[in-house]
Specification:
Helix content: over 70%
Number of domains: 1
Largest sheet: none
Number of strands: 0
Number of helices: 7
Distance between the termini: 97 Å
Shape: rod-shaped
Radius of gyration: 28 Å
Length: 232
Amino acid sequence: MAEELSVIDLILNASITVQLVMLTLFLASVISWFMIVQRMFYFRATDTAMRVFEQQFWSGIDLSQLFRKGTANTEAGKATVGMENIFRAGFKEFTRLRQQGHIDPDAIIEGAQRAMRVALSREEEQMEKHLAFLATVGSTSPYVGLFGTVWGIMGAFQGLAMMHQATLATVAPGISEALVATAMGLFAAIPAVVGFNRFSARFESLMNKYETFSDEFISILHRQTHSSAAKG
């Protein structure tokens, strides 16, 4: 009866090419998991910060006071993220242009919009971070594993051709070694695909909320600007 080989034995007995394929897939899997965990913490923190900021923003607090509060937190070493960064960028530019005096109200609003678009683009870059890598691992790992399997099976049959008497027991270990590469390819790809789909959905959801907030905030600034201009 043939001795049963463990997965470790199959990996150690595989050819150098197949072992390199397995090592590549293993490293891709480790990096993917690191990025998945990092993205989980990032989106969780962003969601929490957004809910806290929205509660403060819509509580009726004075916008200048809210901006100063964010500045104090920044000076204390507390990082601002997401929606608050968009607010701070728009309100900072809005205040700067208003203090210059004799600037057309529409020009003030356009300046604030530009600043918010820049901040929104930066938040978009932060949210998309690592997603391209997860997509690449998810789409290519099965094919990389399949390459290792095909290469391993080719080697097994080449060795089989040199034997005078071939049985299933003689070829099975070589095929098993090769199939481990396919299994590792799926092991690397499945979490990466799940993570990419989940984080892409969170990205789209947050972007929609950020864009909606930007439009609502601009409407508030528009009313304030034209109200002040009318009084003037």
